[in-house]
C-alpha cells in the first residue's frame, strides 16, 4: 500500500498538477455559468434595443425622405468620430498633458478604458515598448505594496494579540518587545490569519469604494449604483470604458477633483489587487482540501497510519521546526517533564509554564510566544529544489507572510 502511494506521488500528475487541472476545470465551469447567467439577463434587453433601433431608423428614413444606405453611411462616420474621441458636447482635450497622463496611467495599471487610443503608427509602436516596461514596473509596485500592507496588518494584529494576552494574564505586565521583536521582519514566530487579513482588506475596499462613489455621484452626476459599478470595474482593472470619470471640459474645483480621482484610483487598484491575491490563497486552500479528500482513497491502511501519526492538538499536522535546541542552549536546565513534552512534539501547556520557577524571563517569554502561536514553520531547505520552488510574485509574498498558506494547512 505504501509503495502504491509512493508510485502515485512520483507520477506526472502530482499535487501541483492536480491543483492546476482542478482549478482549470473550475474556471471553465465558472466561465460557463457566468456566460449562461449574463446571456439570460442581457440577451432579451439587447434584442429589444435592436428592435427599437430598427424601428427608429426606418421612421427617420421615411419622415425625412433619406435612403437607408445613405443614413447608414452617415452613422458609420459618426461611429468613427466617436472612436476618435469626438463628441457633440464639448469635452476636455484627450491629448493635452493631463489627458495624456491619465491615458498612460490606465495603460501601465492595465485598466485600459479605451476612450483614448493612439491614432498614429508612431504612437502605437511607442505604446508597445512603453507598456512592456510600464506594466512590469507597475506589477512590481503592486507586489511591493502587497508586501508592505500585509506587514503593516501583521504588525498591528500581533500588537493587538499581545495586548489580549497581557489582559488575560498570559504575559507579564512588564513585558516589552525588544528591537528583535518589534521589527517587521520578526514575524516568523507569529503570522496573521489569512482570513482575518482578507476581512480587513475587504472592509477597507468597501469603505474606499463607498467614499469614491459618493464623490463620483456628486461630481459626475451618476447614480450611486453606477458609481459603485465604475469603482469596481476600475479598481479591478477590468476597465470596460462605458463609464469614465474626469471627461467633462469643466468641473467645479477641477484641480481638487483630478487629484482626488487619481488618489482614489491608485489606492483602489492597490487595495483590490491585494484583496484578489488573498482571495486566491483561500481558493488555493480550498483546492488543497478537495485534493486531500481524494488522496489515498484506495489505500485505507496508509490513511489509518497517517491519522495515527498526527499530533493531538489543534494545529494541523505538518512540518514544524522544533526549537527545543535553541531553548536548551539559552538556559540549559529544564524540568524533565517539560523537556519530554517539548521533545514529543506537543504544545507546552500554559499551566506548566507559569508553575515552573527554574526558567528565566527570556525563556518564559519565548515559550509563551511559541505556546500562543504554535511552533514556527519548517524552514529546512531542500537542496534539490530550484529557486522557484517557494513560488514567485504575490503568491510567494502571501506564503511567507500569512499563516494558512503552508502545505500542512
CATH topology of the domain at 139-168 and 192-298: Helix Hairpins
CATH architecture of the domain at 139-168 and 192-298: Orthogonal Bundle
Mean pLDDT value: 75
Outline the biggest β-sheet. Answer: none
CATH class of the domain at 139-168 and 192-298: Mainly Alpha
What is the percentage of strand-forming residues? under 5%
Give the uncertain stretches in residue-range form.
Answer: 178-188, 309-350, 353-362, 374-389
**What's the alpha carbon Rg, rounded to whole Å?**
30 Å
Oligomer: single chain
Number of strands: 0
| Through-space gap between termini | 25 Å
Provide the helix percentage: 55-70%
The rough form would be described as globular
User: Total helix count?
Assistant: 15
| SSE order, one letter for each helix or strand | HHHHHHHHHHHHHHH
SS-based class: mainly alpha
Amino acid at each position: 500500500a505504501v509503495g502504491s502511494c509512493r508510485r502515485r506521488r512520483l507520477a506526472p500528475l502530482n499535487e501541483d498538477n492536480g491543483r492546476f487541472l482542478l482549478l482549470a476545470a473550475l474556471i471553465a465551469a465558472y466561465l460557463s455559468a457566468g456566460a449562461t447567467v449574463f446571456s439570460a439577463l442581457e440577451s432579451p434587453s439587447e434584442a429589444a434595443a435592436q428592435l427599437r433601433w430598427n424601428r427608429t431608423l426606418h421612421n427617420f428614413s421615411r419622415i425625412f425622405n433619406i435612403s437607408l444606405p445613405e443614413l447608414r453611411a452617415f452613422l458609420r462616420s459618426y461611429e468613427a468620430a466617436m472612436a476618435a474621441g469626438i463628441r457633440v458636447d464639448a469635452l476636455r482635450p484627450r491629448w493635452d498633458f493631463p489627458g495624456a497622463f491619465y491615458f498612460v496611467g490606465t495603460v501601465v495599471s492595465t485598466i485600459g478604458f479605451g476612450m483614448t487610443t493612439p491614432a498614429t503608427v508612431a504612437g502605437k509602436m511607442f505604446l508597445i515598448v512603453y507598456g512592456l516596461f510600464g506594466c512590469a514596473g507597475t506589477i512590481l509596485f503592486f507586489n511591493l505594496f502587497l508586501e508592505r500592507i500585509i506587514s503593516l496588518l501583521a504588525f498591528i494584529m500581533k500588537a493587538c494579540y499581545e495586548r489580549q494576552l497581557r489582559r488575560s494574564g498570559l504575559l507579564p505586565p512588564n513585558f516589552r518587545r525588544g528591537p528583535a521583536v518589534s521589527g517587521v521582519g520578526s514575524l516568523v514566530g507569529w503570522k496573521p490569519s489569512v482570513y482575518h487579513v482578507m476581512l480587513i482588506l475587504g472592509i477597507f475596499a468597501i469603505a474606499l469604494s463607498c467614499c469614491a462613489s459618493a464623490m463620483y455621484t456628486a461630481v459626475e452626476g451618476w447614480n450611486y449604483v453606477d458609481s459603485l459599478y465604475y469603482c469596481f470595474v476600475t479598481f479591478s482593472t477590468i476597465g470596460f470604458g462605458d463609464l469614465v470619470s474626469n471627461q467633462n471640459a469643466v468641473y467645479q474645483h477641477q484641480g481638487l477633483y483630478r487629484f482626488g480621482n487619481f488618489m482614489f484610483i491608485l489606492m483602489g487598484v492597490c487595495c483590490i489587487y491585494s484583496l484578489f491575491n488573498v482571495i486566491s490563497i483561500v481558493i488555493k486552500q480550498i483546492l488543497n482540501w478537495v485534493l486531500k479528500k481524494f488522496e489515498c482513497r484506495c489505500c485505507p491502511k496508509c490513511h489509518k497510519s497517517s491519522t495515527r501519526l498526527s499530533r493531538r492538538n489543534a494545529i494541523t499536522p505538518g512540518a514544524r521546526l522544533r526549537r527545543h535546541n535553541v531553548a536548551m542552549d539559552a538556559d540549559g536546565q529544564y524540568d524533565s517533564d517539560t523537556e519530554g513534552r517539548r521533545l514529543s512534539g506537543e504544545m507546552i501547556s500554559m499551566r506548566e509554564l507559569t508553575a515552573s520557577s527554574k526558567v528565566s524571563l527570556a525563556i518564559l517569554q519565548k515559550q509563551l510566544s511559541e505556546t500562543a502561536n504554535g511552533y514556527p514553520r519548517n524552514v529546512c531547505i531542500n537542496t534539490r529544489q530550484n529557486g522557484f520552488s517557494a513560488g514567485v510574485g504575490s503568491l510567494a509574498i502571501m506564503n511567507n507572510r500569512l499563516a494558512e498558506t503552508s502545505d500542512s494547512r
